[in-house]
Amino acid sequence: MAVPSLLAVFAHPDDESLSAGGVLARHAAAGARTAVVTATWATDTPRAAELAEALRILGARTPRMLSYADARVPHSAPGSVRFCDAPLDEAVRRLVAHIRDFRPDVMVTHDAYGGLPGHPDHVHTHRVTMLAAQPAGLEQLYPDAGAPWQPHALYLATHPRSAVSALRTVIGARKTVYSVPDDQVTTTVDVGPWMDRKIAAVLAHRSEVQRGALPGVIANLPPATRQRLFATEWFIRHAPTVAPRAQTELTA
């Protein structure tokens, strides 16, 4: 059975590697088409170049950038509005154009909390992706954004509450951590065999390593700790439309 093509949509360069790097590498290794849409940062910035290297490692092709400004880093996209401040319909239309161009079987994005840290750009990326997934298949919506294409399923990258205590040792006990009840997780993926690619992609975001963000923390962890904390990826499956089950699953 063919492995479904996969389009990931995340807020910042490095989110793709941290949240779904293993799944992206796994699908690419199985011969599936994979790609990533990143909501913030301009194409001519150092972080965009780091993203391109990370996607090369993961087998996810050329970056697709919406090129809005990061909510907390104005120089991330000079002259562009912050993603959270952009007209909602405009952002949805831009994403619909990428969905229709790539024509994925399945999509992946942040959960409703925006993942563990609840960053406003993460939350807004979830909102925009949820609003784009079904309209992408409706020909009378956004007719200038390409021929309609309906993804069969949308997976929300998340963390079950049972995993939070271990992760707190990495992200810091005093930081807010968002997670979901374990029974809301529908898909658990062991990405252990693809950990080398996932970690290499995380570390390709060198500016984040240097400033001590999560990629920098991961860079200093022993390999056994990396394996224990990051070799599993969790998702909540959402179906924007009814489709045959065999065509809609992440490889788990």
Keywords summarizing the entry:
252 residues; single chain; 7 strands; globular; alpha/beta
Fold and architecture overview:
With 252 residues, the protein is of the alpha/beta class. It has helices at 15-29, 46-58, 88-102, 120-133, 164-171, 195-203, 206-210, 214-219, 223-230, and strands spanning 6-10, 34-40, 64-68, 106-110, 153-158, 187-190, 232-238. Strands 3-2-1-4-5-7-6 form a seven-stranded mixed sheet, with helices on both faces. Strand 2 (34-40), helix 2 and strand 3 form a beta-alpha-beta unit. It is globular.
SSE arrangement:
Blueprint: E1 6-10, H1 15-29, E2 34-40, H2 46-58, E3 64-68, H3 88-102, E4 106-110, H4 120-133, E5 153-158, H5 164-171, E6 187-190, H6 195-203, H7 206-210, H8 214-219, H9 223-230, E7 232-238
Parallel strand pairs: 1-2, 1-4, 2-3, 4-5
Antiparallel strand pairs: 5-7, 6-7
Question: How is this structure best summarized?
Answer:
The protein is an alpha/beta fold and 252 residues long. 37% of the residues lie in helices and 15% in strands.
Alpha-beta content class? alpha/beta
Instruction: Determine the fraction of residues in helical runs and give it as a percent range.
Output: 25-40%
Rounded Rg: 17 Å
Can you count the beta strands? 7
